[in-house]
Amino acid sequence: MEKKIIIITGGANGLGYELVEEAIKNNLFVCNIDRDIEKMNLLSEKFKENYKGFIGDISDEEFVKETIKQISNIGEIRILINNAGEPSFKMPKDYSKSDINKCFKGLEGMIMCSTEVLKVKEEKNLKIVNIMSSAALKGNKQEAVYCATKWGEKGYTESLKVAYKGTSVKVIGVYPGGINTNFYKNSRDYVSEEKQNSFMNPKDVASIILSNVMSEKNLTVADIIIERNS
């Protein structure tokens, strides 16, 4: 029987890791793409079955092309979750070119991964899930470049929806608020550990996302907005 594949980018840590675990529990074969070599090697040891890791940078076009080609030879790609991305939380006057490049790698990877998967799938029976942020829905004073990236991702997501309307390609935008992960570890002047601990549990968020994405009902949840209670 051909493997039913879910591709998850940025699946070595945080929400991505929880998505990997949740997908394996739901009997999907997970192809995880991440550049964290140490963590990816540990995950390959932990998830011996229904899992394969691909170590590399999603903003590297040749890496993405070759990786998606390899994955397409393993089985049928059913779901692509574009999750990878990095933040930079600073006041607008404090940004540098490196901050801009870091934030925009997530958008580049989202576009390239989606493009290559659409090519190999020939636009049939595919779900593309773009995990963004509540920063794609509003502006924040210490998230100017991060918001710019997420607004760009939202524009790309909405354009995909229009391009594939009426086909078996379904596009889902996900907009979570603060999640309790190491996402904020380099921005303690903006998000303290105490504040981070009040954020949503990544396992809960992953469960909500996949329960909607994997639904076999004759419907598609086009947008998922997940907000914490306090």
Tell me about this structure.
The structure is a single chain. The model has no long low-confidence stretch (mean pLDDT 93). 41% of the residues lie in helices and 19% in strands. Strand 1, helix 1 and strand 2 form a beta-alpha-beta unit. It starts with a strand and ends with a strand. It has a seven-stranded parallel beta sheet with strand order 3-2-1-4-5-6-7, sandwiched between helices. It is globular, with a radius of gyration of 17 Å. It contains seven helices and seven strands, in the order βαβαβαβαβαβααβ.
- Large-scale geometry: globular
Distance between the termini: 46 Å
Order of helices and strands: EHEHEHEHEHEHHE
Summed up, the helix count is 7
From the structure above, extract its key features.
7-stranded parallel beta sheet, alpha/beta, 7 helices, 230 residues, 41% helix
Blueprint (SSEs and pairs):
Layout: E1 3-9, H1 14-25, E2 29-34, H2 37-46, E3 51-55, H3 61-72, E4 75-82, H4 97-121, E5 126-131, H5 144-163, E6 169-176, H6 193-196, H7 202-213, E7 223-226
Parallel strand pairs: 1-2, 1-4, 2-3, 4-5, 5-6, 6-7
